[in-house]
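Please go through the sequence line and token line underneath and see whether the fold suits the sequence. See right below:
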Amino acid sequence: MNCKKILKSATAITLCGCMLAGSNAFSPEMLTQNNSVIANALNASDFDYYNNFESGEGEWESRGGATVAISSDNTFEGSKSLFVSGRSDSWTGSQMALGSKFTAGSSYSFSVAVSPSGKKASEMMLSIQYNVGGEAQYGHIGSMTVQPGKWGVISTSEFTLPDNGTDFVLYVETASGTSDFYVDEIAVGSVGAVNDNIVFGTKLGDIDGDECVSAFDFTMLRFYINNPLMSAPSSADINSDKVIDIADAVLLEEYLFAKITEFPEPPVVVEPEDDFEYIKNMQFKEFPGNYTSDCAQQGKVVKEYYTSCHGNKQTSANVYLPYGYDENEKYNIFYLMHGGGENQDTLFSNDVNLHKILDHMIMNGDIEPMIVVTPTFYSSNEGDFWQELLQNLIPHVEGKYSTYAESTSLEDIKASRYHRAFGGFSMGSVCTWHTLINAIDYIAYFMPLSGDSWVGNSADEKAQNIVNAIKKSGYGPDEYFIFCATGSDDIAYPNIAPQVEAMKKYTNEFIYTSDLSEGNFYFLVAPGKTHWWGYVVHYVYDILPSFFHEHQ
């Protein structure tokens, strides 16, 4: 008989096999009365070490330069937790020396509550560092993937400290990435003082993973409904609506009492087909010579007027609508900024002919039909145009033309960020870096052309400021894409090239390749080309086809 120990209490409770509906051997109150790892029987004195951070950090300190501080913003139990931020690598976080009370070769049980604060799920890890012969060694006590803003408990009832180790240090880290996280309710005790992690199932209704849908699953479901900050397994979402709520409990109850014999089929999600073939190491290539001539399928350029948030200045932008534009269709949108001394009309002038190039690219299948907007930063300046972009330009344009934004609220603009790009040439490139730093929540694709960031004095400072903004956003490297370019003889090359090299050092934030299905950062260099739109427009031709294929 396969018995699973569920909870340590004054009287150990076990479940063997499948519980029958209506059994009162296990009560929801046993889980819901207290999130604490010492709920239902144990006191802090039962552990060799316990900290709920209500009285401060205690022995917990920074690991790898991360910042640790007491916070009341997100707690698992009580009013305070430990907030870990400013992490530069996945192994950085918070740590504590175990001390002489814990001896090599002895076994202990461990438990910690963790909550990532980024925008995506994170694999949280409770780990151990120790010395053997003067060399540092590392091991993992346990791990759990936790949804952002929710709590998970990493625990094991028995872990043996290596018998040849010394100077044991307990620490919390992530398997990858550098997102901030919270820590609460850390307990270390004798074997069995805390419990092994419950193994979750993947079959609908089988929440505990014992291959049986039972009353125990109903108990666990009630726990997750009553504790929405806890990270629930997918098997608890019985009606497949991505919300764990009373509707799931109703279905499970009906199943347990044989009112229904199966759960509703999950909705079939048909992913859009995208057979685009990326190039892993893209090289500069000019567009065909006829791309600047009139096209058989011509789009339309419309001038739009709006008021800037900077001094209430009346300004304008040009909007390219592709051939056959249909307000009932949804279109990706690309905002492309001019350089110094130019204006919103430059790109659609006879000198650059961007509209004709776009016509040919769309007709020949180089890109999908899209909307392209050419604004000007002279209504503000290149450093703070991002404010005008979010407050005025995007709401005006995307409130009138059909994009993936369901409305012009910031929430819906954010939700459609994978269908929005921003780029610019020269001073427009400076504007692009500022936009990346300040508006990454609303734009996923960036195309800085022949211009470096001016946020920082040295290449290293510029790279660090970009990385800091990305870390603050909480996005992972598969959630933003930077494709920059310049000519080898461009006056901007000596500034942007060192910045690119400095950015490459941050391998957690930037994966260098032109294949955006595998990475998120690339620098295209055109041999012999200088600082001129006549060359730069070819970079747009090379790069733009790679945009808008991820997270459709």
